[in-house]
Design goal:
The protein has helices spanning 41-59, 63-79, 81-92, 96-113, 163-174, 189-201, 216-224, 237-250, 272-279, 281-284, 301-317, 336-352, 383-386, 402-410, 425-434, 466-472; strands spanning 8-10, 13-15, 21-25, 32-37, 121-129, 138-148, 151-155, 178-182, 208-210, 230-234, 253-257, 263-266, 296-300, 355-357, 373-376, 393-399, 414-415, 417-421, 439-442, 456-457, 460-461, 474-482. With 483 residues, it is of the alpha/beta class. The chain has two domains: 8-258 and 459-482, Aldehyde Dehydrogenase, Chain A, domain 1 (3-Layer(aba) Sandwich), CATH 3.40.605.10; 263-453, Aldehyde Dehydrogenase, Chain A, domain 2. The strands form six sheets. A seven-stranded mixed sheet has the order 14-15-16-13-12-18-19, sandwiched between helices. A six-stranded mixed sheet has the order 9-8-7-10-11-21, with helices on both faces. Helix 1 (41-59) runs parallel beside helix 7 (216-224), helix 2 runs antiparallel to helix 4 and helix 3 (81-92) crosses helix 4. The longest helix is centred in the N-terminal third of the chain and has 19 residues, at 41-59. Residues 14-479 form the Aldehyde dehydrogenase domain.
Length: 483
């Protein structure tokens, strides 16, 4: 199913890349999926300029016109769901269910979500002014209006080449912005399929542009471009910090969804089976390559041994292998380099004193596979407990009292999504409010897709999803007049 000779999408045209092409590798087979384009600096600048030129006309279209285009794009993506999922699976190594439901399916749903018109202005109570040095007495009316930011650079992560870009592009377009998309170098081909759907749905030339490349210069050029007014980035904290420095110098708006080390606080009165099933999603969703995963388990002493035993047994039952096979739960990680990185963390944990629980099964000879692993008897000062591993690895740390559990959960550089398991709902919500995280799951790893999403501390800046994304991709303008 190789996709050969992919072209860039710049200013409404499909253009050959100046830098040639590079191979996109299937993590499950190590075979070439297709050839992705390598944009030059000049082509990247041209994409940003095209978005800048298209902004004026696009921002003046009605919200209804923009919503109609997004709705058609959602239908086009959904209509090719199986084919798109096969490509996404080949690029990322995701299981079939994940590729169809959580990648392409969520991507289509996000276009559909923003294919509806929401109020972009609201009245502010009038202000009565007394007579004084500034003039006569009077009434001042006011209106708050959401305006498009301008050109938005959407720089996306490799773990979900559909849901992640769609979650940026759709609300940005809905608010009247134009976009330049820089997909992750590991799996950019799916994003070009998304651009094709948007083009077919009627997006005017220059409103959506896609440039890719293995070279860091492509991303650097997009972020630094004077045509770009906002950067929306999903990826590592280290890269996010470098992007934020550039944004700061240019006073560009930024939306940063960065790393995570989700704490799962499991109390003695918790439903252990529910907790194990929730924590175990770390192994299955993208093979642990997901920033929201509950990878740092804090288990109260009374339940600690039972939880470790059940979590280890759970990991041992999961089939690791070809993601195209129906019963596979854990597929490969994205690359050989990342596999080696995750394996080095497991070995580091062993050296730091962790008890390693890993399945004995044979891993496939080809592909970038890692078996689901539990690192038990950890302490919160170990590197494996403090650093984001981004693989199918969970660390487990015991604690005694509620105060200690909360303190351990908050003793982290990250604060994206935490979790609490307890049979006492009042306690669970009390603890949830004390956690320094952008979101907290109470007895679940599920998410409400209208709830704001984003992190505290080094997990990011800003909030998106649902109506919060419309806020993120807009500026608020105040209009006042005498009554």
């Amino acid at each position: 199913m190789a996709v050969e000779g992919q072209r860039l999408f710049v200013g409404g045209r499909w253009v050959d890349p100046d830098g040639g092409h590079y191979a996109v590798t299937d993590p499950a087979t190590e075979e070439t999926v297709g050839w992705a384009p390598e944009a030059s600096r000049e082509q990247t600048r041209a994409a940003c300029a095209a978005a800048g030129e298209a902004f004026g006309a696009w921002s003046r279209t009605t919200a209804e016109e923009r919503a109609a285009i997004l709705g058609r794009a959602a239908d086009l993506v959904r209509g090719q769901l199986v084919a798109h999922a096969e490509l996404a699976q080949a690029e990322t190594g995701a299981t079939t269910g994940t590729a169809r439901g959580m990648q392409v399916g969520v991507g289509a749903a996000r276009f559909r979500r923003y294919a509806r018109v929401e109020p972009a202005e609201w009245a502010i109570p009038p202000q009565i002014n007394e007579a004084g040095p500034m003039g006569r007495a009077g009434v001042m009316g006011a209106l708050a209006v959401r305006q498009a930011v301008g050109v938005v650079a959407c720089i996306t992560s490799y773990n979900n080449p559909w849901a992640n870009p769609a979650g940026k592009i759709a609300p940005a377009l809905a608010m009247g912005n134009t976009v330049v998309v820089k997909p992750a170098p590991q799996d950019p081909l799916s994003v070009y399929r998304m651009a094709e759907a948007l083009e077919a749905a009627g997006v005017p030339p220059g409103v959506v542009n896609v440039v890719s490349g293995e070279a860091v210069e492509v991303g650097e050029e997009v972020v630094a471009s004077p045509d770009v007014d906002m950067v929306s980035f999903t990826g590592s904290t280290a890269v996010g910090q470098r992007i934020a420095e550039v944004c700061g110098r240019g006073m560009k708006r930024q939306l940063m969804e960065l790393g995570g080390k989700g704490a799962a606080v499991v109390f003695d009165d918790a439903d252990v089976g529910s907790a194990v099933a929730g924590i175990g999603t770390t192994f299955s969703f993208y093979s642990g390559q997901i920033c929201t995963a509950p990878t740092r388990v804090l288990a109260q002493r009374g339940v600690y041994e039972r939880l470790v035993e059940q979590l280890g047994a759970y990991a041992g039952r999961l089939k690791v292998g070809d993601p195209r096979e129906r019963d596979t739960v854990v597929g490969p990680v994205i690359s050989a380099a990342h596999r080696d990185r995750v394996e080095s963390y497991v070995e580091l944990g062993r050296k730091e004193g962790a008890v390693v629980l890993a399945p004995d099964g044979q891993l496939p000879d080809r592909g970038f596979y890692i078996g689901p692993t539990v690192l038990a008897d950890c302490t919160n000062d170990m590197r494996v407990a403090r650093e984001e591993i981004f693989g199918p690895v969970v660390v487990v740390i015991p604690f005694d009292e509620e105060e200690e559990g909360v303190a351990l959960a908050n003793d982290s550089d990250y604060g994206l999504i935490d979790y609490v398991w307890s049979g006492d709902v009042a306690k669970a919500f009390r603890v949830a409010r004390r956690l320094r995280a952008g979101g907290v799951g109470v007895n679940t790893v599920g998410r409400n897709m209208e709830a704001p999403f984003g992190g505290f501390k080094k997990s990011g800046v800003g909030r998106d999803v649902g109506s919060y994304a419309l806020h993120a991709y807009s500026e608020v303008q105040a209009i006042v007049w005498p009554g």
